[in-house]
C-alpha cells in the first residue's frame, strides 16, 4: 500500500523542534530545518568533525554552509497568514492609545498580547489562532505593547534575545558571529536581573535628591520672603524719617532709598536664579522618577534594558548648598544711619535756634 503524500504543514515543520520552520534552510540531502535548530544540532557535533542530518543520518565533511530556503519561508508565511485571517475577529475595535492587532485587516481590533518571537501583536481571536499555529513549543508572549520594533536587530532583522555585557547592548544571535564574537554575553532576562539589582538603589538616590532639593527650595523661598519684608520695612522707616526732615535733604533721602533697592535687587536676583535652577532640577528628577516607576512595571526585558541606561543616569547637579541668601541683611544699619542724621540735624537746629534766640 502506497504511503500518503505529506501535507504542506508536514513539509514545513521542523523535525527537531516540531514547530513551523523559522528561517528555513535545506541541507545537502534535501531535508529542511529551522536555522537555529540545525545550527545548535551541528554545534553539538563539533568535536566529531563530522556533521549529520537528524532525519536520514547522511554525513557531511566539512560543515556545510547553510542558505535560507526562500520558497519554504514564503510558504510558511502564507500558511500563517491564511490560518490567522480565517479566524473571525471579535468586535473590540482599538481606541486611542490602544495597541492594534497586526493581523486584522480593515477595522483594527485591540491587541491583547504581543508575541516576542513572532514580533506581532494579536487580538483575542488571532492570539488563539497564533497558539494553534505553534503547537510544538510555547512562544514567549507579553501584554500587548507597541514597542516590538525595539526588539528587532537593525542589522540582521532578527529578534534581540541576548545582552552583551562587553558593549552593554542588546544583540541577536547573528551578532555573536560578527561584531560581538567572543564577547561576554548572557540572555536578555539574565541581563535584566543584573541591572535590576541597581534599579532600586538608583531610584532611591533620585528620590532622596528630590527631598533634599525640595527642602532647600522651601528654605530659599522663606529666606527671600524675609529679605523682601526686611527691605520693605527699611524703606518705610526711611520714608517716615525723611518725611520729618526738612525739604533741603530730600535728595539724600532718595539716595538712601536707591541704595536699599540696589541691595535688595542684588540679593533677590541671586535668589531667583537659584530658585529657577532648583525648580528645573526638581522637575527633571521627578520626570526621571516617573520614568523609572513606569519602567519598573514593564514586562518587556529589551525595552527595560534599552531604556534603563538613559533614565538611570543621575543628571549633573551643581552643589548649591554653599550659596544662600544673606538673611542677615536687615537694613538696620541704614535705619540707624538715618536716625543718627535726624538726631544730629535736630540738635543742630536746636542749637541754631538757641543762638538765634540769644542773639535776639
The stretches of 5 or more residues where confidence is low (pLDDT under 50) are 1-6
By helix and strand content, what is the structural category? mainly alpha
The number of strands is: 10
Helical content band: 40-55%
Radius of gyration based on Cα positions: 39 Å
Overall mean pLDDT score? 79
Chart the SSEs and their pairings:
Layout (H helix, E strand, L loop, with lengths): L7 H4 L12 E3 L5 E3 H10 L6 E2 L6 E2 L9 H17 L26 E3 L4 E3 L1 H10 L7 E3 L18 E3 L4 E3 L13 E3 H57 L5 H47 L4 H12 L19 H28 L1
Antiparallel strand pairs: 1-2, 3-4, 5-6, 5-7, 8-9, 8-10
Describe, in plain words, how this protein is organized in 3D.
The chain is mostly helical. It folds into three domains: 1-80, Herpes Virus-1; 81-188, Double Stranded RNA Binding Domain, CATH 3.30.160; 192-316 and 324-342. 51% of the residues lie in helices and 8% in strands. It has helices spanning 8-11, 35-44, 70-86, 124-133, 188-244, 250-296, 301-312, 332-359, and strands at 24-26, 32-34, 51-52, 59-60, 113-115, 120-122, 141-143, 162-164, 169-171, 185-187. The strands form four sheets. It has a three-stranded antiparallel beta sheet with strand order 6-5-7. A three-stranded antiparallel beta sheet has the order 9-8-10. Strands 1-2 form a two-stranded antiparallel ribbon. Strand 8 (162-164) and strand 9 form a beta hairpin. Helix 3 crosses helix 4, helix 5 packs parallel to helix 7 and helix 5 (188-244) runs parallel beside helix 8. The N and C termini lie far apart (156 Å). The model is unreliable at 1-6 (pLDDT under 50).
Amino acid at each position: 500500500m502506497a504511503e500518503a503524500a505529506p501535507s504542506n504543514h508536514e513539509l514545513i515543520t521542523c523535525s527537531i523542534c516540531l514547530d513551523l520552520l523559522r528561517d528555513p534552510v535545506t541541507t545537502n540531502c534535501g531535508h529542511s530545518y529551522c536555522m537555529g535548530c540545525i545550527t545548535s544540532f551541528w554545534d553539538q557535533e563539533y568535536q566529531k568533525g563530522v556533521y549529520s542530518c537528524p532525519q536520514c543520518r547522511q554525513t557531511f565533511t566539512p560543515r556545510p554552509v547553510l542558505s535560507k530556503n526562500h520558497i519554504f519561508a514564503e510558504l510558511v508565511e502564507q500558511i500563517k497568514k491564511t490560518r490567522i485571517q480565517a479566524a473571525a475577529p471579535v468586535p473590540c475595535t482599538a481606541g486611542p492609545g490602544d495597541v492594534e492587532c497586526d493581523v486584522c485587516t480593515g477595522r483594527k481590533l485591540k491587541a491583547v498580547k504581543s508575541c516576542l518571537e513572532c514580533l506581532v501583536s494579536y487580538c483575542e481571536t488571532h492570539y488563539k489562532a497564533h497558539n494553534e499555529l505553534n503547537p510544538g513549543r510555547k512562544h514567549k508572549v507579553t501584554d500587548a505593547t507597541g514597542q516590538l520594533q525595539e526588539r528587532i536587530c537593525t542589522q540582521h532583522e532578527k529578534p534581540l534575545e541576548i545582552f552583551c555585557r562587553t558593549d552593554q547592548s542588546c544583540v541577536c544571535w547573528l551578532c555573536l558571529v560578527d561584531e560581538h564574537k567572543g564577547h561576554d554575553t548572557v540572555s536578555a532576562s539574565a541581563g535584566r536581573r543584573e541591572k535590576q539589582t541597581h534599579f532600586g538603589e538608583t531610584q532611591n538616590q533620585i528620590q532622596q535628591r528630590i527631598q533634599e532639593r525640595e527642602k532647600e527650595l522651601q528654605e530659599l523661598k522663606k529666606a527671600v520672603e524675609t529679605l523682601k519684608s526686611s527691605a520693605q520695612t527699611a524703606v518705610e522707616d526711611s520714608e517716615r524719617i525723611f518725611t520729618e526732615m526738612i525739604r533741603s535733604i530730600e535728595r539724600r533721602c532718595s539716595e538712601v532709598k536707591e541704595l536699599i533697592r540696589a541691595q535688595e535687587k542684588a540679593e533677590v536676583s541671586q535668589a531667583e536664579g537659584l530658585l529657577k535652577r532648583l525648580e528645573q532640577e526638581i522637575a527633571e528628577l521627578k520626570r526621571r522618577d516617573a520614568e523609572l516607576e513606569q519602567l519598573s512595571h514593564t514586562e518587556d526585558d529589551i525595552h527595560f534594558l534599552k531604556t534603563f541606561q538613559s533614565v538611570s543616569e543621575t543628571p549633573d547637579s551643581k552643589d548649591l548648598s554653599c550659596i544662600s541668601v544673606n538673611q542677615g541683611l536687615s537694613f538696620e544699619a541704614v535705619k540707624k544711619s538715618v536716625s543718627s542724621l535726624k538726631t544730629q540735624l535736630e540738635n543742630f537746629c536746636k542749637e541754631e535756634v538757641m543762638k538765634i534766640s540769644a542773639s535776639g
